[in-house]
């Protein structure tokens, strides 16, 4: 079983790396951002509550997110492990996760932080395009589709995410600094934190990430 957490500022490439890591480690990606966006698209009560909060760039309340994760971690595919992407994002979320995992007798293997200078974030987010149908993520410079604005995988049109506006990006960066960055010290004290630079190509970041994660997983199973 491998239980991993991926944290990092908005646009650091968490989703991009998660897609590659889940293939390597054979575990499901659990992205609270993706779960919330699916609820918004489906027009559920949760989606209606979350939509204006997400559009503003603020964080959705902890109790909602913790309820979502509690349910998701009980699904059968999590028996072989999981990769949490974008959760936890606050200290109360991390504390709640600890309780949930203790109940299931699961221990975390590592918390991988993707570190990126704040100046680079806007360029990453401003260039992001997402397939409106299969949700594959592209970047207008770094990860271009074969045909402009058309998804390579399913042929649908590409869209700009609703919270990739300059104002929402500013709020998201602030939320990261104020509420998520304290998790680096939290997991550092628990000796679970490993950090890699999110600069360079996606392949370079992946090489760095898997080198530290493989070392960490080997040392924990030794
Ligand atoms: P969420 O979806 O988690 O957004 P985020 O953390 O802001 O992260 P992003 O998805 O924007 O970026 P990413 O790091 O995944 O980067 P990506 O791989 O796409 O959350 C959205 C909202 O939901 C929150 O604001 C909040 O409201 C709510 N929410 C979610 N979880 C919550 C929680 N736990 N608590 C409370 N509220 C919560 O890459 C970005 C772009 O860069 C792409 O175009 C990509 O192609 C490109 N790229 C990636 N890597 C590279 C690279 N190495 N070089 C060049 N380009 C790259």
Q: How would you describe this structure to a colleague?
A:
- This protein has 222 residues and is of the alpha/beta class.
- Helix content is 50%, strand content 15%.
- The protein contains nine helices and eight strands.
- The strands form two sheets. It has a five-stranded parallel β-sheet, sandwiched between helices.
- Helix 1 (14-25) packs across helix 9, helix 2 packs across helix 3 and helix 4 (62-73) runs parallel beside helix 5 (91-103).
- The longest helix has 20 residues, at 202-221.
- It is globular.
- It starts with a strand and ends with a helix.
- The model has no long low-confidence stretch (mean pLDDT 95).
- The protein binds BIS(adenosine)-5'-pentaphosphate (AP5).
- Residues 8, 10-16, 32-33, 36, 53-54, 57-60, 65, 86-87, 89, 93, 124, 127-128, 137-139, 142-143, 163, 172, 200-202, 205 line the site of BIS(adenosine)-5'-pentaphosphate (AP5).
Instruction: Catalogue the unreliable spans.
Output: none
Oligomer: single chain
Per the principal axes of the C-alpha atoms, what is the gross shape?
globular
What integer value in Å does the Rg equal?
A: 17 Å
Percent of residues in helices: 40-55%
Structural class: alpha/beta
Strand content: 15-25%
Average pLDDT reading = 95
| Strand order in space, largest sheet | 2-3-1-4-8
Number of helices: 9
Total number of β-strand segments? Answer: 8
- What is the chain-wise order of helices and strands? EHEHHHEHEHEEEHHEH
Described by strand count, sense and barrel closure, the largest sheet is:
5 strands, parallel
Molecules bound to protein: BIS(adenosine)-5'-pentaphosphate
- How far the N terminus sits from the C terminus, by CA atoms, comes to 14 Å
């Amino acid at each position: 079983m491998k239980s991993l957490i991926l944290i990092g500022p908005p646009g650091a490439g968490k989703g991009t790396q998660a897609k590659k890591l889940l293939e390597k480690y054979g575990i499901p990606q659990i992205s609270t951002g993706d779960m919330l966006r699916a609820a918004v698209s489906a027009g559920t009560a949760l989606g209606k509550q979350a939509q204006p909060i997400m559009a503003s760039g603020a964080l959705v309340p902890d109790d909602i997110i913790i309820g979502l994760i509690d349910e998701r971690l009980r699904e059968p595919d999590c028996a072989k492990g999981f990769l949490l992407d974008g959760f936890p994002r606050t200290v109360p979320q991390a504390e709640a996760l600890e309780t949930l995992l203790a109940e299931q007798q699961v221990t975390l293997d590592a918390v991988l932080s993707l570190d990126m200078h704040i100046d680079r974030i806007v360029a990453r987010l401003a260039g992001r395009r997402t397939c409106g149908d299969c949700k594959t993520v592209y970047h207008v410079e770094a990860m271009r589709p074969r045909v402009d604005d058309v998804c390579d995988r399913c042929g649908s049109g590409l869209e700009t995410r609703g919270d990739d506006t300059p104002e929402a990006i500013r709020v998201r960066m602030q939320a990261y600094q104020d509420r998520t960055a304290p998790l680096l010290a939290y997991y550092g004290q628990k000796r679970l934190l490993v950090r890699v630079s999110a600069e360079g190509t996606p392949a370079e970041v992946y090489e760095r990430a898997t080198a530290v994660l493989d070392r960490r997983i080997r040392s924990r199973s030794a």
